[in-house]
Amino acid sequence: MEQKKQKFTAFTLFVAIIAALGGLLFGYNTSVISGAILFLTKDFNLTVFQQEMVVSIILIGALVGAYVGGLFADRLGRKFTLFFTTVLFLIGTIIIMTSHSIFILFIGRIIVGLAIGIVSMAAPLYIAEMSDPKHRGALVSLNQLAITIGILLAYAVDYYFADVNEWRSMFAFGLLPAFLMFIGLFFIPETPTFLISRGKKERALIISKKILLNKSEKIVITIPKDKKVSSWKNIFEKSVRPALYAGIGISIFQQITGINIVIYYAPKIFQMAGFETATTAILATAGVGIINVLMTVVALWLIDVLGRKPLLKIGLIGMVASLFILGLAFMFATKILHIISVISLMSYVAFFAISLGPVAWLIISEIYPSAIRGRAMGIATFFNWASNYIISLTFLTLVASLGTSVVFWMYAAIGLLGLWFVVKKIPETKGKTLEEIQKYWKKSTAKR
Ligand code: BGC
User: Fold this and answer.
1) Which residue has the CA at smallest separation from atom 7 of ligand 1?
2) How many structural domains comprise the chain?
3) What is the CB neighbour count within 10 angstroms for residue 23?
4) Secondary structure of residue 228 in the 3-state scheme
5) Domain containing 289 — which CATH number?
């Protein structure tokens, strides 16, 4: 009973919030373009292809960044990696907001994309290593909450500056969280895991004690002495393989079940469903953003109580059902179509927000051995961004060739596959220390 009432220490909450500003930057910078693109198109006379490039180049930057971030995190430290990413955000944003040619605009977008990719893996990684096992789920998911708030903030800022045709200010707003995070990072320490890997045991112990409520408890961190263990080869070693595949799989399923076609194309979907004015479509989109935030708060509360797997299962079943109904609504286009389309899109996002949204990032931050955690997370995150790129690039073409209903049903079918994957391949990690999770994989591969 007593354990349930335990709260995390103020110290852990503070460091988690600073790292989660990375999530805010991730969410803000991926979404701000949706409002800015109209004005950029006018100012720079962009062709359709150039518009697509401006929007999607960030995803290419992010997938490269994820990989690089993993390397940096293992070699140079978690904190250094976070610092590096805030500097990239600041430089990239300044380049974008002061650009007067398409070329410079592209350069800025690539730099911000790299920063997004790095921070998307480094922030959950940092928080996971700074959390006690009983609250790790909620603390790491603060990052997902910040992503959803960032997305909503971008909608609001775009809406505000749209009237005055001010795309530069839309991007400039992103400097604020980047600067806050940069300053905040001076006040947070390196994680115990990384310190130990560099032989700084005493410092690691001091930090671990600050994380734990019950000071007599211990966070045991084992870093193999054999230097070879942390070489690239070892990431693909037999004992690590199932964990690696589980992380890659959950990252891919987070994307290929279609979340970003809703996040990126919601106004378009609402227009296809019969909303006449762009304004009502945009308002309905804001509704989607709000549900995303609110349901992520619910997830934070449930994730360490119910566990990761039950949330994934409930969420996937709900997402599949919502997509199925959405497909039906488009098939029998009637007057009530827009009501049904709004309700099913909202419920789809709600189910994503309590499951694949936070849990996919959480799982990849906790299932890997400490010696290779950064790089393995980087690889899983690479697949997350690559799948995001493929899905967002193919959506409109698929709708044009297969029809809207079939496309939504296709995502529903993929969701069912995801459910099977979760049941078979994802272990429950609730309440376990990162080291206990490591042992689980060792045992499970030894059995084979
Ligand atoms: C995903 C993003 C998505 C966001 C929506 C994140 O977990 O990685 O691709 O846009 O959730 O809330």
Assistant:
1) 357
2) 1
3) 26
4) helix
5) 1.20.1250.20
Contact 441, 239 (CB under 8 A): yes
Atom of ligand 1 nearest to the CA of 120: 8
Q: Which amino acid is at 216?
A: S
Q: Which atom of ligand 1 is nearest to the CA of 353?
A: 12
- What does pTM read for this prediction? 0.94
109 CA distance to ligand 1 middle (Å) = 19
Confirm whether 363 is domain-assigned. yes
Triad 110, 115, 118: Cα angle to 5°: 125
**CB-based contact 349:262 (threshold 8 Å):** yes
Distance between alpha carbon 356 and the CA centroid of its chain, in Å?
10
Mean predicted confidence (pLDDT) in 107-118: 98
Quote the ligand 1 centre to 147 CA distance (angstroms): 7
Cα(396) to ligand 1 centroid in Å equals 19
- Token digits of residue 355: 């499951």
Domain ranges, residue 113: 10-188+224-446
- Residue with the bigger pLDDT between 54 and 444: it is 54
